[in-house]
Automatic annotation (TrEMBL):
The protein's name in its UniProt record: AAA family ATPase
Keyword Transmembrane helix part of the UniProt annotation: no
Pfam families documented for this protein: SbcC_Walker_B (PF13558)
Coiled coil: 307-348, 426-475, 595-629, 706-740, 797-831
Gene3D superfamilies per UniProt: P-loop containing nucleotide triphosphate hydrolases
Annotated keywords: Coiled coil
PANTHER family: ABC TRANSPORTER ABCH.3
UniProt KW Coiled coil keyword: yes
Membrane-spanning segments: none
Amino acid sequence: MIPIKLTIEGIYSYQEKQVIDFTSLIEAGLFGIFGRVGSGKSSILEAISFGLYGESERLNARDNRAYNMMNLKSSRSLIDFEFYNFKDEKYRIYREFKRNSKRFEDVKRGEAILYQWKDEEWVPLPDLDIEGIVGLSYENFKRTIIIPQGQFKEFLELGGADRTRMMQQIFRLDRFDLANKTKSLLSSTRERLNLIEGELNSFSQVTAEEIGSKKELHLQESKKATELTVVYKQEQESYLKLKGLKEDFDVLAQKKSEFVQLEKRLPEILEQKKELVQYELFDKVFSALLVEQKNTNTKVVTKETRLEDATKEVIVLEGQFNKVAQELKGVEEQYAGLENVKAELYELNLIKEIQQADRVKQVLLERFQKGKSYVIEAEKSLEVSREKVKGLEVTLNQLKEKRIDTTILMAIDAWFNQHTLISTSIEGVQQTMQTLNEDIQAVDKDIQRLKLRDVNQWEQEIEQYRNQFEQEVGRIEGELRNHRVAQQLAQYASELHPGQPCPLCGSAHHPHILQGGDVSVAIQQSEKHLAEVKDKQQRLVKYERKATGLFDRKKMLLSQWTDSQQKELAYKQQLEIHQENFEWTLIVQANEEQFLLLKQQVEKDNQQIELLEKQYNSFLNEVEHYRGQVDKFSKELNLIEVEGVGLDGEIKSKRAQVVRLQIEAYLRMETPLIDQEVVRREERVAYIEQQYKDLTSQYQMLSPKLASVQTEVKNIQQELAELKEIVRQLEVKLGELLLANGLESIEEVVTVLNRQLNVLDSREQIQAFEVQFEVVKNSVYTLEEKLKGLSFDQELFAKQQDKIVLLEQQVKEATEVVAKLAGDIERLDRDFAKKQELQKQFEAFDKRLKNISVLKNMFDSAGFVNYVSSIYLRNLCDMANQRFHRLTNNQLSLQLNENNDFEIIDYLNEGKSRSVKTLSGGQSFQVSLSLALALAESVQSLSKSNKNFFFIDEGFGTQDTESVNIVFETLSNLHKENRIVGIISHVDELQERMPISLSIVKDEEKGSIIETNN
């Protein structure tokens, strides 16, 4: 995080707005903030921390931060901080507080707003993810970026567990916590191995001998099915010819009936066509002019009406304006003399407040005398209650020493509960196993109803049928495509005529025209056959779903039964171990009745103790009540005294402000009389002010309004003349058009246009009828020519249809037998290959399971994470020693002991180690500085930031001159490492050596002021 600019106002001692531009400070690499104690140096760092995280080092959430952070002379405070994050992205955080103008202690804390600099402007962000943007939590921010006063040694003195947790957060060491991943991987691998083993068991009956037997039987059945198919195709060809002839005769009768109905509608359509032509002509010639004429006439009427109204309005406004101007002139003289009246009114109100303050002062004196007696009574009651508490406390301690320890009873009770729980679990598992056995038997019965040849090869059997149906669908679809191509070619050939171009090749010469037969019967037969095969496919899908569901359910039930069996064994072993863990001598082992009696006795003792404790707490509450009354009454007496002094000052101040009126005379008057005088003067002031305001407002309103209406009258008169000329021109043009079209009056045109015909719909209806009429007429002619000289024998058609149905059933049965055998063979081949593949997988997963078990033992209990954390910490210690050795002239060194706690090696005492707590204040600063710089360097490396910022708020006052020189040299060299260091100090010697610094000066009137020193 690199700061850019900080703006603060109304924060702690900063009363007026102060802006710190960090640009020049950052360029210097090393800068300082100097000032006297209490000038507001540390408040700058706290403003940055609070602006970012909403946390304060001085105040917690219970301290009413908003009120206590705001300057007491300010009604508003703000923090506006701009900075770069570790990705060199520019952000801005804005926070603002406002004080309630009526209640001084009520300070509202506004919502913080986070912005990002995008496309040359500040864009507000929806989420306040400071930790994600800065890359550090608030606690780690204080340890690595801005180290506030009193927190510099925190990292050095953290406990081992806290320091390890901090390292994990900063360096994201949780990524090395692989315990859950290896545990999950072990579980999934074991589960996968069990599944493979189960699948291998299901293929135990798949052998090469079984596959050879199925193939021989399939060859015999295929030959039989082929012979039946040849006979079926021969008979089907005769049937399709008869069926096509029947359909042609049916279509001819339907088309003749349709043609008769169309001939009846022909006269009506012709009349509709005539009306449509006339409507289109009139609409094109007259519609636009008629609409324009109507709209112009409407505008003329509207303008004439408005002209009449506006003329009347001008007359009224002129009268009102003259009257208001005359009245305003008379009121202006009275309005000029109101200032003296207001000044006397203000002094009258001050006299009233002085009278009220005198009355309040008298009441306070009476309250003070009465409060003294309350304090004396409360102190007596407090002493009596304290004596009661002491006596009851002795009795209560004696009873508690005799009672049995409740932790022992809880442990015994937990033993009985666990015993009951394990026993109940065993019974539950046994009941579950019985239910699972019944479910498995029921599933086996449902599988038997499927009538599979081999329940172990059911998938292959279904797959054979599926492949057979897919092949038959492909074959039939190929036949359909061939038939349709032949049908289309025959249609093209019938439409060829000498001299006309061919629609396919474009040639006008046709030497060899195709002579094709009618294939419509064959197409219909193939479509029917295709639908039947697809129906079989759908039924096969339903059958497969049912089979899959049954076999999956059985597999799941068997797995559940095995798991339940393992659970039963585990529960029984757990019960034996639990019984061996009974270690108490208060009762006989497993004697629950004896334990219940013991619990009842203990409960009685506890009830008696509880009763005494309630009495004890009641007396304690009584003591606190009386103590509170004493404190309360004493505080109220102090407040009364303070309030009385304040009233004396208020009366004196207000007397000095009364200069126009005789104050003593008015003070002797009764308050109601003064009130009447105040009301009388206020009413006169209000009346004159209101009258002046109303008349001025009316004058300002009427003047532009009158001018506006007068202008409007002139404009309307001009527009009316133009509109009437347009009306005259339109009438002339319409007369010319009527004469040109042979019409006598415009009413004829209006009558036709009022029909409001839908031209597009009417034209489409007429065209649709004409096309339909011609199509039906041509269809009747074509069918009559085609069927000339032909007849249809219904009896012959019925006999042939019965023969086809019988042959089709025989072919179907033979085909199903062949398909079933083919499916069995394919399933067996596939299962045999799968069995070999599963055996290889089983061996691989068994080896993988053993390796993962070894990894799981390594990563359990976060051991690996703690190991990595200790490595990071030791590297950090080595980096810190590079500076610590120089700061101490190689006299001291920092190291980690076996508990990951920091220790000091003292080379002046034979290199022996000692606690870091034995260091002096100056030495603690040196080692803390070295650690903080090393930690900041590690964070910089982690975030891959080009620069890093580091702020220190203490420690230089503990160093001697030589140490200060070494520290200053160390900090100066950090600039070469792209480090920016800011320090806060009151040591003048350091300020003189800084290339640039800020000075904080505290002014009694303006508060703290920031000045830049170059």
